[in-house]
Structure formats: C-alpha cells, structure tokens
Design brief:
The structure holds three protein chains of three kinds.
Chain A lengths: L6 E11 L5 E11 L3 E5 L6 H9 L6 E6 L2 E2 L10 E4 L11 H11 L4 H14 L15 H13 L5 E5 L7 H18 L2 E6 L2 H7 L2 E6 L2 E6 L1 H6 L4 H6 L4 E9 L2 E4 L2 E4 L9 E7 L5 E4 L5 E10 L4 E8 L3 E9 L4 E3 L4 E4 L3 E4 H4 L4 H7 L3 E4 L5 E2 L1 E6 L6 E9 L4 E9 L3 E4 L4 E4 L3 E4 H6 L3 H8 L3 E4 L6 E2 L1 E6 L9 E9 L2 E7 L8 E5 L6 E4 L5
Parallel strand pairs in A: 3-8, 3-9, 6-7, 7-8, 18-29, 21-26
Antiparallel strand pairs in A: 1-2, 1-4, 4-5, 9-10, 11-12, 11-14, 12-13, 14-36, 15-35, 16-17, 16-35, 17-34, 18-33, 19-20, 20-22, 22-23, 24-25, 25-26, 27-28, 28-30, 30-31, 32-33
Helix pairs in contact in A: 2-3, 2-4, 3-4
Chain B lengths: L1 H32 L15 H8 L1 H33 L3 H16 L2 H14 L6 H25 L5 H7 L4 H30 L2 H6 L7 H8 L6 H34 L1
Helix pairs in contact in B: 1-11, 2-11, 3-6, 3-8, 4-6, 6-8, 7-8
Chain C lengths: L1 H5 L2 H22 L15 H8 L1 H33 L3 H16 L2 H12 L4 H7 L12 H26 L2 H9 L4 H30 L2 H7 L6 H10 L4 H30 L5
Helix pairs in contact in C: 2-13, 3-13, 4-8, 4-10, 6-8, 6-11, 8-10, 8-11, 9-10, 10-13, 12-13
Classes of the chains: A alpha+beta, B mainly alpha, C mainly alpha.
Chain lengths: 530, 266, 278
C-alpha cells in the first residue's frame, strides 16, 4: 500500500445503558477510516442507531470514548461537530421550502448570500433536483425528500455523513435506484459515509466495509465478500443471505465430518474432534442423480424464481409417530317424540388429561351434537354424564338434550404415547383416536384436524417449552371415500433440510443427491466470535 | 451541561408558579367554606355552619338537584342522539354532512350569549313558559354537537369496510352497529358523554337566559348571590369541586383498575 | 345504506327547530323596528346605526376589544413558556401536568371566578401579602386589572393546551437536525420550534379572544356593576330594558365578527399545518 488510510473515527469500548436498565451497547470498539463507505448492519434494536446517535452527538454513552481525528469529541455539542446526519424520516423543516432547507446550515454560519446560493445550487445539481428550490418540501415524493435531506447535510461540507436507515421509507424500486445514487454521490464527494440499515442486501451492494451488530455487540467486521463467504458465527451466517448451517466435527485439518460422513474441506486451526458449525450457501449446492450425490435426500419442495429454483432437499426424516385412527359411522339417535336427533362418537383420552375434564371438553372430544330433525337447527346438549377416572380403562359417557334425547358412547383412557428422538433432541407425542366418517369427509383442513384429534405435539428435549412444528401428516386413505375401519396416521417433524439454489428442475418427492466443492464448505467455531 | 440543568430548574419554577396560580383560589374557597365567621379574608376557626346553612336553604339544595338532574338527562339524551346521528352521517352524502356540521358549528363557535338570546327569543315567540323544560332542551341542544365532535373522528378512522364485512358475515344492519361499530368508537362516545356532562354541569350563560319560574342551577345561584358576602357560596362551591373531582377521579382511575384486574387474570 | 341515512333525520329536524330558527330570529329582530309584533315587522337598519353612532356603546365596544386584547396578549406571553416547560418534562411528568392544568377547567367558571373576590378585596389575602412588604392596600377589585386577571385565569388553560399540542406534535428529530446543521439552542428555537408552534398559538388566540370579548359575568363579578362590556349590554337589553331588536343587532355584529375571525384563523391554521405533516 502506497498510502495508509487514516483513522478518522475511533469508538473505544462504548457502553450505553438507559434509565430503565436496558443495555443497548455492550462495549463496542470500532475504527472508521477516511473516505470509507461503512455500513452498520443488524436487526432492529441491535444498537446500530444508538451508536450513530452517539457519534452525531444526540446521545451520551454511559462509558467509553469517541475520538474524531484523534480528539475526544464527547463534550462537543452536535452543532459544533464536523459531522452531518441524514435522519430516518429525513426531518426536513416543514415550514421552509427546498432551498431554505438546504441553506439552513449555511445561514446559521452567516455565510454571504451569494456563496449560499452558489453552494445550494451545486447541491441541487448533485442530487438531480435542479429547479426544485422554490418547492414546498411536503409536496415532494419520498425519494425527492431523501435527496433534499442528503443535500442539506452535504452542503455543510462535513468530513463524515451519517445516514440512519435513509432508504427505509422508500419502495423497492426507488430503494434500488437510491442505492446506486448514494454510492456514486459518496464517490464524488469523497468523504466517509456511515450508513445504518437492517437490510443485508443494501449493505452488500453499497459498502466498502460492513459492521455486523447484534444485541449490542459487534459480531463481525469485514468487506461484503468476507462477511458473505466467511461468516464467523451462526448469527452472521443467518443474517447475511440464505444459508444452510449443519452441526459437524472437525476430524483433522481440512477434514470435517457431518451427517456421519467425512468430507474434505479447506479449514485449519481447529482442535481435533472439535464440534463446529458448517455453512454451505444454497448456490454452492447442486442437485445430481442420487447415485452421484455426496449426500442423499428427497426433494420436499421447489419454487420457481425466474432465474433458478429454490429447492428444499431433506436428507434425513424428522422424528415421527404413527397412531391408529378408528373410523366409525355412528348413526345418530332419533327421538321421534321430541323430533330431535343426537350423535356422538367414542373417544380415546390420555390418563393425564382424564383428571381435568369438563362438560365442554367431553362434548368436543366426542364431537357430540344434537339437532332438530326437520330443520337441522342445532339443539344444545344440556347434560353430560360421565365417570371417567384418571386410570386406564373403558368408561361410558351419556349426552342428553333438555327434551331427553340421549346417546351413550365409549371412552377409552390410555397411557401416553410418545416417541423420543436423540438425533434431533426432540420428542413427539400423539394418541390413537376415534372418528366418524362424516367428520373426516367434512373437514376442510384435514391435516390440522388430524393433529388436533390426535392431540399431536412435539417439543425440544433441551427446553420443554420450546414447541417443534409438526410439518408432516401422512395417511394412506382418500378422505372423500373413507369407509369405517382402522387407519394409520403418521405425524413427523422436519428433518435435516438443505436449501439449494439451482437451475435444475426436480420433482417434489423424487430422490436426489447433493454435491458441493471442498472450498465451499465454511467451518465456524461453535458460538464463535472472530 | 450546567446550562441544561439551569433551564430545567427554570422550567420547574414556572410550572410550580402556574400550579399555584391555578389552585390557590380553589384551595382558598375550600378553606374559607369552613370558616367560623362571615369574613372572606380572616380565618377565625373551623366550623361547619355554612354547610348547615346551605343544606337548610331550599334554594341551594334545589339548585344542586336541578343541576345534577339536567346534567344527567342532557348527557344521556345527547350521547345517544349524537352517536346515532354521527354514525348516520358517516354513511350519508357529503352535502348533508357538511350542512349538519356547519349548523352544529353555530352553537359551538358562537359566544354563549348569542346562542342564549336566540333561544330566549325562540321560547318567548312560541310562548313557552320558561323553566325546567326549556333549560333542559337548551342543554341538550348545545351538548349534542360536542358529542358528535368527539365521536366523528373515531368513525373516520374506522376501516370503511367494517360494516360491509359485518353484513357479509350475516349480521343485520342493527347488529353491525351494536356489535362492530359501537365497540370500536366507545372511547369517543365516553369522552363525548364526559364533555357533555361537564358542559351542562358548568353552564351558566345559556341556563341564565333560558330558565325561569324560579328554576335555578348552581351557576345562576352563584351569580345572583355573589353580590352580597355569603359564605354559603363557598360551601356550595366546595361541594361542586368535590363532585367534579370525584367524577374525574372515577373516569381516570376506573380504566387503570380495570387494566390491572385484567392483568391479574392473565 | 338507507337505514343508516335515516338515522340522521330526527337530528336534522331538531337542529332546524332548535338552532336554525332561533338564529334566524336574531337576524329578523336585528333588522326590524322595536315595538312591532312578529307578524307585522318593518325592515330597518336603525339598530346597527344606533350601535355605531352612540358614544356610550362605542366606548363599550372599544373597552371590550381592549380588555380581550390584553387578556390574549398576557395569555400568549405566559402560556408559551408554560407550554414549553411542560413539553420538556419527562413523558410521565407531561401527562400529570396536563391533567393538573385541565382539572380546574372542569370546575364551574363562576365558582372559580367567585374565588378571586376574597383574594382581591381591599382587606383580602393579596393585599395582606403585599402589606408584608409595606405596599398597599391597593384597590384591585372592580378595576380592569381584576377583570383581565379573571379572564386570564379562566382562559389561559386553552392557550397552554393548544401550544403544548403543537409543540408535542413536532418531530423531535427536527431539533436534532437543526443542531446537526450547526444551530445552537437559541437558533433552533427561533428558526424551528417557534415557527412550527405558531398554529398552536393562533388557535390558542381564538380560543382566548372569543370568550374574552363576549364574557359578561367576569366583568360583572370582578369589575363591579358599573363595569360594562358588550356582553353586559346584550344582557341588559334582554333582561332589563327589553329592547330585543337592539340586543339582536349587537349580538349579530358580535357573531359575524367572531365567525369571520374563526374562519380566517382556521385558514391560517390549515395553511401552516399543511406544512406540518410528516
């Protein structure tokens, strides 16, 4: 390097906590150089805007130092800093026209009128809004207001321009245009831009340097390519672009094992048998015939995206459980005297649930209902007789209307039925159940109903409160033409899935293989920082 | 940051003086309602004699009764009528809405005294005997526009398709109103009713010109009796302040209590 | 949607009878000669001419405007710093302060005005307090001072609330932007805060000036029987001298002036506020 870039701004161990005790920044240190386009990237609430406001002088840090050109600037009020800001919603002065907005900073400094006019005109030209000077700022479109805000800041010739999510309020197309325009403005005026956004694509397009922030801490600093290719941890990998993260073990230098297979890779500096996270980007995976694949799986879904297909391939099924569904065709009981009909079906119940039954719950479990035969108008069920104890066994339940129409069905109390999977550290649970033919035929969302009837649920073994979604409900009957009998219903959670971005079409359900190159395997330390 | 601090202290002093200015006369009246002597300036000992005197004075007790009665009836009527009309207007032509709004503006924007004499002449021309009824009608008249002013913005902020959605789902127009629209605009209705109540409770000018036949409200009584020193007015005023404070307290505190109860349930 | 439209019919009938007809009566009486009954009226401008030419009435009108003007001026000068101080409190403090300022306005105006009687009397608390410094006793009751004080006391909350609302509505980032562009606190206030809060001041002025110019019990209670403003003239025309035609004419003049000034302030409000969005 012929000339070493100069450090313009240094954040030194910045901590910011608010009165209510929340800590937004947990010791952030960051150097920013001259003429850089730096992006602070992170989800909302991560502290990126707070950091920007501290630099702008609108907030004081709880701890730490901010050096500007080597000098501590924390005691310098915002109006004396050589830094200007483009605010989130622009903060244009609504009572002034475009010209007066841009001229504001210069009139405050009492510059001569002709100088002001010259500079404002030059700025209007820079942001492509010549001839807009007399316009009222509230009449302008979002994109135009945005440009005015940039011009108003740049006219003061700051050495740093801060931009706080400036493109957030614009629609997609305009946002893309402004991305290019901002970049070219930055190159033209040749000053440091510090840009805050939560949009990873925006960050990748414009920045010289990206600073990824999460939960008040810097996760990674690097060029867009570095951040994308070599994320240091799961957060960065997930936040920047689509990705597959797989748990693995580093067997040796350049040799990693995941999904019980060994793969060559390009990664050194890990301990032997160290547990790691593997990152493979969707576009680095390709679909091949099953026999040629390094991993084998089943295509779960494929979406056409114009240039390519977004495909999901499952290499290993999730945790599953199969239960019996007993389908009956109970005829409703007809009470000719009252002109009422009543129907109900037997049901199966878990011991644990038998202890806390209510009438309403029993009615729901048995799908008991009564109606007037002629008009089919519903009649409410007045009495529910049951003597179900929290012990396994067979019990009878009687439902009756006020007019005395009644029906008795069986209720089975059984021991719980669950399946544990150590591979995924999760457990799935479901019960055998009774159902009527009509219930199945009339269901408009059968998968959801089946899950409810079988009280199927799954959760993580590490944290019982963490529900795992049951993504698959499998059965081999046709709901339209089902007849009484016993059927298997299988519930399953999602297994290992790979997102693949490929130009190859593949049918859903087909068995395929996956391939990737050793250099496309990126290995990260567990829970890693740089 | 010293400059900021001193500014903050300056602000606090201004606000303290403001509160003193607002509340001193009110406390003054309350304190002197318990004065043993007739004096409005020297406190010569605690006594309840002015309260006794007030409650034994039928003119005063009647005035309190009339004030409360009229305020309650006027609030009920104007809240119901104002809400129904506002809902109707939200579905009517712009011309009709504009006309009704302009006419409503007349009593709201005109000085009370203009509204008052217009009603005075109106009742006299019709040869209606002025008294309780004329005063009540007048109160209902000036309360409805305030209810509508409070309800209409809430109606405007509603999704225009709400009623259509309700009808689409099988509700009758009446059910659409009572189950969908009214619950959504309830805050507007409540604040409208509150404004109506205090407007009626506090009114002097319009009541003064539209009453007769010995029917007085508290304001009229204070006005006519204040020419002579009469500490019973202090006692009466204290009662008024108490009533309004309690009413405001209920309005402001009940929602907080309800919120807390709901939180506990969860 | 016929059902909904028909919901407005009763009220339309009601306002026709209870608002429109009575207001028309004022116009009718204002333009007719006294002494006639409803059916045989003679058109005349005399009532207006009398009000404009009579020296006593001109003096009354002049005094009413003067009192209302000073009341409004004082309300702006005191109300602005108060509203500004409230807007700079913490969010919680702001709510409490607004509640504390609103509370007294819920208490009957007559009661609150009456309270000043005891305070302002020659041997009242205020004079007793001034006496501690060897001043007075100063006669305050039954002077313009007492009337203006009573009006300021009654009407300043409207001013404070209006200004506070417009200060509150202002995007706080505008001040950050001004500071960012090099303006110090005073410059930020003069160039950003003040112009943007003007709509609040304007609507505050209408809310203070209008009741002040038409008030008649404040002058009666605090100004004494001889203190006559426009409102008192109207009162006496209707309740003592019985000249409805003349009273109607004065009311009409007042109503027209007020409606016009309302209309114009609203226009100003709208034109300033249209810049206040976003």
């Amino acid at each position: 390097m012929a000339e070493e870039a100069k450090k313009l701004i240094q954040f030194k161990n910045i901590v910011k906590s608010f009165e209510d005790g929340t800590v937004v920044l947990k010791g952030v240190s960051l150097d920013i150089y001259e003429n850089e386009f730096v992006t602070l990237l992170g989800p909302s609430g991560c502290g990126k805007t707070t950091l920007l406001r501290i630099l702008g002088g609108f907030l004081q840090p709880t701890e730490g130092k901010v050096l500007f050109d080597g000098e501590d600037i924390l005691s310098v009020p915002p109006y004396k800093r050589e830094i200007n800001t483009v605010f989130q919603k622009y903060a244009l002065f609504p009572h002034m026209n475009v010209y007066d907005n841009i001229a504001f900073g210069l009139t405050i400094k009492k510059e001569p009128k002709d100088v002001i006019e010259q500079k404002v005109m030059r700025m209007l030209r820079l942001v492509n809004l010549e001839g807009y000077g007399k316009r009222n700022v509230t009449e302008l479109s979002g994109g135009q207001q945005q440009r005015i805000a940039i011009a108003r800041a740049l006219v003061n010739e700051p050495s740093v321009l801060l931009l706080d999510e400036p493109l957030g309020a614009l629609d997609l197309k305009l946002r893309k245009e402004m991305q290019h325009e901002l970049k070219s403005i930055q190159q033209e005026v040749g000053i440091t831009f510090i840009f805050v956004t939560h949009d990873q694509e925006e960050a990748l397009t414009m920045s010289d340097k990206i600073v990824v922030i999460n939960a008040g801490e810097i996760q990674q600093i690097g060029t867009p390519t570095e951040i994308y290719r070599r994320p240091v941890n799961e957060f960065v990998a997930n936040f920047i672009g689509e990705t597959n993260i797989i748990e693995g073990v580093m067997l040796d230098d350049d040799l990693v094992m995941f999904e019980d297979k060994k793969f060559p890779c390009k990664a050194r500096g890990f301990e032997k048998n160290e547990k790691v996270d593997i990152v493979i980007r969707p576009e680095h995976l390709d679909i091949v015939p099953r026999g040629e694949g390094m991993l084998k799986g089943v295509v779960k879904s494929q979406l056409f995206k114009g240039m390519h297909y977004d495909t999901v391939v499952e290499t290993r099924a999730g945790t599953s459980i199969t239960v019996k569904m007993q389908v009956s065709q109970d005829k409703p009981v007809f009470n000719a005297e009252a002109g009422e009909k009543i129907s109900a079906s037997g049901f199966i119940l878990d011991v644990a649930d038998a202890a806390s039954l209510s009438d309403a719950k029993v009615i729901a479990l048995a799908s008991a209902e009564a109606w007037i035969a002629e008009t089919e108008e519903n009649v409410s069920i007045k009495t529910v007789d049951y003597d179900i104890k929290p012990e396994t066994g067979e019990y009878s339940v009687t439902f009756a209307t006020a007019a005395g129409t009644s029906i008795t069905v069986r209720a089975l109390v059984v021991k719980e039925n669950r399946v544990e999977s150590t591979v995924y550290q999760e457990e799935i649970y479901a019960m055998n159940f009774f159902k009527k033919v009509e219930d199945i035929q009339e269901s408009i969302a059968l998968d959801t109903d089946l899950k409810m009837w079988a009280t199927a649920s799954a959760w993580s073994l590490e944290d019982e409160n963490e529900q795992v979604e049951i993504t698959d409900v499998k059965y081999d009957f046709d709901p339209e033409t089902i007849t009484p009998g016993v059927y298997d219903v299988t519930f399953a959670t999602a297994g290992y899935e790979y997102k693949v971005s490929t130009t190859r079409a593949a049918e859903e359900g087909s068995e395929v293989g996956l391939v990737f190159r050793p250099e496309d395997i990126h290995v990260m330390k567990k829970g890693g920082h740089k | 940051m010293d400059e900021k601090k001193s500014r903050r202290i300056g602000g606090k002093i201004i606000l303290a003086l403001t509160l003193l200015f607002f509340y001193f006369p009110i406390f003054y009246i309350i304190v002197f309602s318990f004065n043993d002597s007739r004096s409005l300036t020297k406190f010569s000992g605690f006594s309840l004699r002015w309260y006794e005197k007030m409650f034994s004075d039928s003119a005063m007790t009647e005035a309190i009764l009339y004030t409360v009665l009229i305020a309650v009836i006027a609030t009920l009527v104007s809240t119901v009528v104002g809400t129904i009309t506002a809902i109707g207007l939200s579905r009517s032509s712009k011309v009709l809405t504009a006309i009704v709004e302009r006419v409503n503006d007349l009593p709201v924007m005109n000085p009370d005294i203009v509204t008052a004499i217009s009603l005075l002449m109106f009742f006299s021309v019709l040869a209606v005997k002025k008294g309780f009824l004329t005063m009540l009608l007048a109160h209902i008249m000036f309360c409805i526009p305030y209810v509508m002013l409070s309800v209409t913005p809430k109606l405007r902020s509603l999704d225009p398709n709400l009623i259509e959605a309700a009808l689409d789902l099988g509700a009758t127009p009446f059910q659409a109103l009572t189950r969908v629209i009214v619950p959504q605009i309830r805050p507007g209705i409540v604040s409208g009713a509150l404004i109506a109540f205090t407007m009626s409770f506090d009114d002097f000018v319009i009541s003064y010109f539209t009453t007769g036949n010995g029917v007085n409200n508290i304001s009229i009584l204070v006005y006519t009796m204040s020419k002579r020193v009469n500490p019973s007015i202090n006692a009466l005023s204290t009662i008024v302040i108490l009533l309004i404070t309690v009413a405001l307290g209920i309005v402001n505190i009940v929602p907080i209590i309800r919120e807390k109860k709901e939180k506990k349930k969860q | 949607m016929k059902q909904f439209r028909s919901m407005t019919y009763p009220y339309v009938a009601w306002i026709t009878v209870m608002i429109v007809v009575p207001m028309l009566l004022i116009v009718l009486y204002a333009f007719t000669q006294s002494g006639n009954d409803v059916l045989t009226f003679r058109f005349t401008f005399d009532n207006f001419v009398r009000f404009v030419t009579d020296k006593i009435f001109r003096a009354v009108l002049w005094r009413s405007l003067y009192i209302a003007f000073f009341t409004t001026l004082i309300c702006v000068l005191l109300g602005y710093p108060i509203a500004y101080a409230i807007a700079h409190l913490s969010e919680h403090g702001e709510t409490v302060m607004i509640l504390l300022i609103t509370m007294p306005t819920w208490v009957n105006m007559l009661v609150r005005t009456y309270a000043w009687l005891g305070i302002l009397k020659d041997d009242g608390v205020l004079n007793a307090f001034l006496g501690l410094f060897g001043i007075g006793p100063v006669t305050m009751l039954h002077t313009s001072f007492a009337v203006i004080l009573g009006m300021v006391y009654n009407f300043i909350p409207f001013m404070i609330l209006q200004i506070h609302t417009s200060l509150n509505k202002m995007d706080k980032n505008l001040l950050n932007a001004a500071a960012d562009l090099g303006a110090n606190n005073v410059q930020s206030f003069l160039r950003v805060t003040l112009p943007l809060s003007l709509p609040g001041v304007v609507s505050g002025i209408t809310l203070v000036f209008l009741p002040a110019v038409s008030s008649f019990f404040i002058p009666k209670l605090l100004g004494g029987g001889q203190y006559v403003l426009v409102g008192n003239v109207i009162e006496s025309q209707f309740l003592t001298s019985g000249d409805w035609n003349f009273g109607s004419a004065i009311s009409m003049i007042m109503a027209v002036i007020i409606m016009l000034s309302m209309y114009f302030t609203r226009k100003i409000d709208v034109s300033v506020a249209s810049g206040g969005k976003e």
